Amino acid sequence: ASAETVGKDEDCNDSTCLGVWDGILANCAPMTPGAGCVSSQDDTTQDVFLEPWDYAEAVDLDWKVQKKRLLPAILIVSKIHGDEVQVLFQQERYVKVMFVDMKTLEKSIGEFYFTPNDSTVQYRVSSISPNTSVLSLKNKERCELIRKELGYLKLPVIRTRTANDFSPGEWALAKVMGII
Predict the structure, then answer these.
(1) Which residues pair with 20 in a beta bridge?
(2) Please, what is the average pLDDT of the chain?
């Protein structure tokens, strides 16, 4: 089976396209770390990456049931923090929303994707407002609060590593174990 493509503009053909493209959400643009953009699939930039969510310990592991829980959790978290939410698009395993911070009027697009044959939720939340402060942690906080509202776990990920990230012994062990 080929990887899924959903919610992607047919006229967009680069890595910044919104939607799921061959099973992957877009990376964050290079100039938008921090609140500007966070992603569970972009582990190349430390300030951007957050762990994917895992619902393996949920009572019902059906992704359709979990997807039905997502929007109410987003709405609860947003209401508590004075944000407005608009659902922009939903199809199968994919949901796209717009968050509006009613204090600053900053707008962010949130994408959530329930990975096929897994209990993992991938997500990307990126500001679309000009002059967003890269030092703000709003989208990181937003994602973490949604995860907690859902009761999901963080899925530990071994991020992109090079030999410089390990001692010689750790590097050799990681290669033997198939981690790298």
Answers:
(1) 6, 25
(2) 81
23-64 tens-digit pLDDT? 888 877 765 444 478 888 877 666 788 899 999 999 999 999
Backbone angles phi, psi at 77, to 5 degrees: -60, -40
Helix, strand, coil percentages (3-state) for the chain, rounded to 5, are 25, 25, 50
Angle between helices 138-150 and 63-80 (to 10 degrees): 130
Q: For residue 103, what are its two tokens?
A: 């204090």
Name beta bridge partners: 154. Answer: 53
Please give the backbone phi and psi of residue 59, each rounded to the nearest 5 degrees, phi first: -65, -40
| Cβ proximity of 49 and 117 under 8 Å | no
CA-nearest of 81, 70, 78, 163 to 121 is 70
pTM: 0.81
Polymer length of the chain = 180
What does the longest C-alpha to C-alpha distance in the chain come to? 51
Strands (E), 50-132: 53-54, 83-91, 94-101, 107-114, 120-127
User: CA 145 to CA 33: how far, in whole Å?
Assistant: 19
